[in-house]
User: What shape does this take?
Amino acid sequence: MSSIQKLEQTVTEKFSRLGWDQLTPIQSKAYPVILRQRNALLVAPTGSGKTEAAIVPIIAFLAKESRSRKGIRAIYITPLRALNRDIFRRVLEYAKSENLSAAVRHGDTPTSVRRKITENPPDLLITTPETLAILLTGKRSREGLATVRWVIIDELHELISSERGTHLSLSLERLEKISDSKIVRVGLS
Assistant: This one.
């Protein structure tokens, strides 16, 4: 059995442990593409499991990957802080199940939490486009972003044709320049 096949088996088992006995169409189509580290756009109706279709295989991949140094390895970008909190509860549960860490950072994040994220970066960071742009300006936060391998952009259709989307595109290009490796991008719409 190849390493990809083993990882696919791990992902299907993880979906089952999370209560997804039957994968939704978007989940069954997405995880093989994501595990092969291909950029992807996941388009499906609300409530179809898009978030899990993206995050579960990425978490499984991160859990199996050897870690050479500390830093953020995946970023989940949402257009709204309220969405951050909703996603954070679920993502934190998934990350903890694989002994990974997750944090949320946005404009209202207290200074003490910001400092903690900078000093001890989580494996997975949930943020907004504007906060990502701010993180790219600080020397210490850029060091934590140098290990990013995955970016998930939620509600991509809300951002793509706006000034915020243009700004996010520039931030993603800056992130790509400082990252040690090619970044895999997964859009959700």
